[in-house]
Amino acid sequence: MRKKGFTLIELLVVVAIIAILAAMLLPVLSRARERARQATCMNNMEQLSLAVLMYVQDNDDYFPPTYYLTYTSEIGWDFATDTWWA
């Protein structure tokens, strides 16, 4: 009479198949995670632009102050020329 159960070879084959499927799934999950990060970033940028637009509308078409001043350098956005300056 034959014993019921799986042999070691059968279990190793199943584990190998699961490992192959997992290896195929990892790049897909990585791309999905990157797309989610990009979507979050785009949403944050949109919210920031809407906040600036609301500020401009409430303050007679003046942009919010965006100058970051330190003791060693000045970095900011020059809205008059639409360029970065440092």
List SSEs in N-to-C order: HEEE
Low-confidence stretches: none
In DSSP terms, counting alpha (H) and pi (I) runs of 4 or more, how many helices? 1
Q: Estimate the strand proportion.
A: 5-15%
Q: Biggest β-sheet: count, sense, barrel?
A: 3 strands, antiparallel
**Shape descriptor:** rod-shaped
Give the helix proportion (percent range). 55-70%
How many E strands? Answer: 3
Helix/strand structural class:
mainly alpha
User: Reading side by side through the largest sheet, how are the strands ordered?
Assistant: 1-2-3
Give the domain tally: 1
Please characterize this protein's 3D structure.
The chain has 86 residues and is mainly α. The chain has one domain. It is 59% helix and 12% strand. The chain has one helix at 8-58; strands at residues 68-69, 74-78, 83-85. The protein has a three-stranded antiparallel β-sheet with strand order 1-2-3, with no helix packed on it. Strand 2 (74-78) and strand 3 (83-85) form a beta hairpin. It is rod-shaped, with a radius of gyration of 28 Å.
Chain-wise SSE layout:
Layout: H1 8-58, E1 68-69, E2 74-78, E3 83-85
Antiparallel strand pairs: 1-2, 2-3
Keywords:
mainly alpha, about 60% helix, rod-shaped, about 90 residues, three-stranded antiparallel β-sheet, 3 strands, 1 helix
In brief:
59% of the residues lie in helices and 12% in strands. It has 86 residues and is mainly alpha-helical.
